[in-house]
Design brief:
Layout: E1 19-27, H1 32-44, E2 54-63, E3 68-75, H2 78-85, H3 90-99, E4 104-112, E5 117-122, H4 146-149, H5 163-166
Antiparallel strand pairs: 1-3, 1-4, 2-3, 4-5
């Protein structure tokens, strides 16, 4: 019986260190629409700067209500992604967001072809992705930076914003 489905697959052998990242920004409060509209274009179009290692960038819409926009990115390797994340203007955007989420929430999940996954959920009220089935824990200490969470602390270990910058007067650490 002949099929009408044109099935295709991909050969990823040229991308042994491929990294896929899903990110989302969710409006938690009405004033968060303003935050989404101001930050969204900044994080939603990194391809405009043609960062080294970014293979593909795609915009997504998770939901209209609450407004929840997202992106999916494909990176050549983890060092390329981490270098871009630590560059301007992304580093400044991330620092400012972590100081005040502006009525929004942000999350990302990272998947490495060579193995390893990690995620962060900042001001996300509903459990999604890994958080819907895996135990949550504070992103503090060794779990603060993404390279350590993914099990690759040797890959550019300094987080975009250090724990000391985010919690400067925290005697509980």
């Amino acid at each position: 019986m002949a099929t009408r489905v044109n099935r295709q697959t991909v050969d990823l052998s040229s991308y042994p260190d491929l990294v896929v990242v899903y990110l989302g920004m969710r409006v938690n409060r009405l004033y968060g629409l303003r935050t989404l509209m101001s930050y969204g274009p900044q994080i939603g179009n990194p391809a405009a700067g043609n960062p080294d290692g970014l293979l593909r960038h795609e915009s997504l819409m998770w939901s209209l209500f609450p407004m929840h926009m997202g992106i999916r990115q494909y990176w050549r390797d983890l060092p390329s992604l981490l270098a871009w994340a630590r560059s301007e203007p992304h580093r400044l955007w991330w620092r400012d967001f972590l100081r005040n989420s502006g009525g929004t929430g942000f999350w990302h999940e990272t998947y490495l072809l060579r193995g390893g996954m990690e995620a962060i959920y900042d001001d996300i009220p509903q459990h999604r992705g890994f958080a819907a089935f895996a135990p949550l824990q504070p992103a503090r200490g060794p779990m603060f930076g993404s390279a350590t969470r993914i099990g690759r602390p040797h890959d550019n270990t300094a987080p975009v914003v250090t724990e000391e910058e985010l919690y400067p007067q925290d005697p509980g650490r």
